[in-house]
Amino acid sequence: TRFLTILGRTTLVTILAGTGAFYYVTYKERHPGTQLPYDPSKKTIVVLGSGWGATSFLRHIDNTDYNIVVVSPTNYFLFTPLLPSVAVGTLSPRSILQPTRYETRHKPRQIKVIEATATNVDPKNKTVTFSDLSPIRGQISETTIAYDYLVYAIGAEVQTFGIPGVQDKACFMKELKDAENMQSRFLDCLESAGFPGQSEEEIDRLLHMVVVGGGPTGIEVSAEIRDFLEEDLRSWYPELAQHIRISLVEAMPSVLPMFSKQLIEYTVSSFRKHKIDVLTGTMVKEVKDKSVVLQMPDKSIQEVPCGLVIWAGGNKQRDVTRDLMVKLKDDQKSPRGLQIDDFMELKGASGIYAIGDVTHTSYAPTAQVANQEGAYLARHFKTIAKRDALLAQRDAATSNEEREKIHARISKTKMRPFHYTHQGTLAYIGSDEAIADLPFMNNNYASAGTATYLFWRSAYISNLFTLRNRTLVAADWMRTMFFGRDVSRN
Ligand code: FAD
Ligand code: NAI
Fold first, then answer.
1. Alpha-carbon torsion (429, 433, 435, 438), positive or negative
2. Which tens digit of pLDDT belongs to each residue from 207-245?
3. What is the pTM of this model?
4. Distance CA 391, CA 407 (A)
5. Is 90 exceeded by the pLDDT of residue 413?
6. How many C-beta neighbours within 10 Å does residue 319 have?
7. From ligand 1's centre to the CA of 365, what distance in Å?
């Protein structure tokens, strides 16, 4: 009885403490304090973008020393690793978004957040021009502002290689609207296949889903579609489920080149076991309204009927980034992205710092890299603020002796270069299985299966930036487990 009493009390105390902590954190998140106002004597950092790199920068920067302006066409941060789960309704779109103002309102000094698209950067005059391209615009929808420092973190867009039909006929998987679009079109294919009198051949076409690109995006999208089919569609569309076919098309001889060989083999055999056709060495040459044109490994051309093409062909730089490269052509020679030094500063331009997918470095274009670069740059700006303050003191010094003393302090201000720490590569491969290449004591530890999937889930939930997102994602996972995915089309 005593043991049970102690156990009961401990449980009660734990529940009360947990509830109290939850209430405290959510209260703090919802009630930001007062902030320092804009200070014209401080330097201005303009941040372009609100993705992984920019949000990590905003999260870590101590902006007491700076005025900050954020310009982005999306007024939120999108947790891209869980985007394929939104495309099939495992997660709700809002669960993986974090409004940028939720971040900036908690900083010591006010930050201006502007929903607009940067259209031009002038590195000579240190200005950036941006436009409101949203459907509703005020009288003014374009302006140019000056920056002292520019954090350039606008990411990349989807690479289509100019292949006919891709841009207007395929679905992408890069932004929130892409996932919502794919979900709607996928369900539309199902409903059209169920229309009375549809021929077997037409049902097969409508329910053939072609995923292009065997990188991690293509793999995860294929895996999510398969889960949707097995866990939900078989119940709600029993007459159609056996017609659903998923083909994954990859131009290179192998999928997932960034993973170790055994994990590639594991993924391919798991896909084949679950009836996902993996066509390697096969290149998409055109996307048509009702088919996709493939160049097979033997170079023959085949036109394959399909209902939906999901394009995950990799990254390319945005027009505004390419324009910037042209302006700095003596120092920017890589077509793959902006070249930066060890401190993230753009080669050939002073005061512009580039992070994430806009850069071409020795690191892969991943969230992990952009996140670490953003955090690094925030710390670096603390050192820059110190150095700028000393430079101002030196310029105001009245004697040579004082000037030299300050000069000595300036030369001691150490600028530490960026150092990337790889924490591993993970991907979801469907049927409650994931693969992971994890660095362990200077070696690589490859793991796959259900335990890895649980690790994948816990890693992603802990990487979500806020308690709000963690709660929403956990609740969505529970909703899907108990009630399944929603098959209503919006
Ligand atoms: P982004 O996060 O893309 O942010 C770019 C920002 O710039 C956005 O806010 C955008 O609205 C804004 N913007 C665009 N144009 C302009 C403009 N003209 N002016 C101003 N702002 C602009 N990486 C991993 O490490 N692990 C994963 O599991 C993983 N999963 C992924 C899953 C998917 C489906 C995708 C698409 C990518 C995934 N990645 C993953 C890669 C990762 O998302 C990117 O590497 C990361 O988003 C790059 O961060 P970024 O800040 O450079 O760009
Ligand atoms: P990717 O560049 O990794 O893969 C694109 C694939 O599409 C390539 O393998 C390419 O050969 C193929 N392809 C291109 N054109 C083709 C065509 N015409 N026909 C057939 N195949 C064609 O792109 P992805 O997967 O979008 O990833 C982009 C970045 O985001 C990568 O750096 C990746 O590591 C990262 N990412 C990481 C994830 C993770 O860690 N779980 C998940 C998703 C993305």
1. positive
2. 999 999 999 999 999 999 999 999 999 999 999 999 999
3. 0.95
4. 8
5. no
6. 9
7. 9
Does residue 1 surpass a pLDDT of 80? no
Q: How far apart are CA 218 and CA 313, in angstroms?
A: 8
For 157-185, b where at least 16 C-beta lie within 10 A, e where not — what string?
A: bbbbeebebbeebbbbbbbbebbeebbeb
Are 227 and 90 a contacting pair, CB within 8 Å?
A: yes
Ligand 1 atom with the smallest distance to the CA of 77 is 9
Q: State the maximum Cα–Cα separation within the chain, in Å, rounded to a whole number.
A: 93
Residue with tokens 């493939």: 294
H or E element in which residue 130 lies: strand 127-131
Whether the CB-CB separation of 211 and 221 falls below 8 Å is answered with yes
Angle between helices 367-396 and 52-60 (to 10 degrees): 50
User: Does ligand 2 lie within 6 Å of residue 12's CB atom?
Assistant: no
366 lines ligand 1 (CB under 6 A): yes
**CA 442 to CA 440: how far, in whole Å?**
6
* CA atoms of 228 and 375, how far apart (whole Å): 36
Closest CA to 144 of 114, 167, 168, 166: 114
Which residue of 366, 368, 422 sits with most ligand 2 atoms within 8 Å of its CB, as the best mutation to test the pocket? 366
348 CB under 6 A from ligand 1? no
Residue 375 Cα distances to 59, 243, 343, angstroms: 8, 48, 12
Q: Which atom of ligand 1 is nearest to the CA of 364?
A: 45
Question: How many Å apart are CA 188 and CA 31, to the nearest integer?
Answer: 42
The predicted model gives 170-187 an average pLDDT of 97
C-alpha 26/C-alpha 336 separation (Å) is 42
The stretch 420-434 carries a mean pLDDT of 96
Contact indicator for 166, 149 with CB cutoff of 8 Å: no
- Lowest average pLDDT, out of 13-17, 128-132, 267-271, goes to 13-17
First and final C-alpha spacing in the chain: 56
Atom of ligand 1 nearest to the CA of 53: 51
Which of the listed residues 103, 117, 366 should we mutate to test ligand 1's pocket, taking the one with most ligand atoms within 8 A of CB? Answer: 366
Q: What is the tens place of the pLDDT at every residue in 281-298?
A: 999 999 999 999 999 999
Which SS3 state, helix, strand or coil, does residue 465 take?
coil
Q: Is the ipTM of this complex over 0.90?
A: yes
pLDDT of residue 2: 82
Q: In 3-state terms, what secondary structure has residue 348?
A: coil
Quick one: average pLDDT of 189-194?
97
What does the pLDDT read at residue 219? 98
Judge whether 302 and 294 are in contact, CB under 8 Å. yes
Q: Which residues contact 137 (CB under 8 A, 6 or more apart)?
A: none
Looking at ligand 2, which atom is closest to the CA of residue 283? 19
User: How many C-alpha atoms does 280 have within 13 Å on its Cβ side?
Assistant: 14
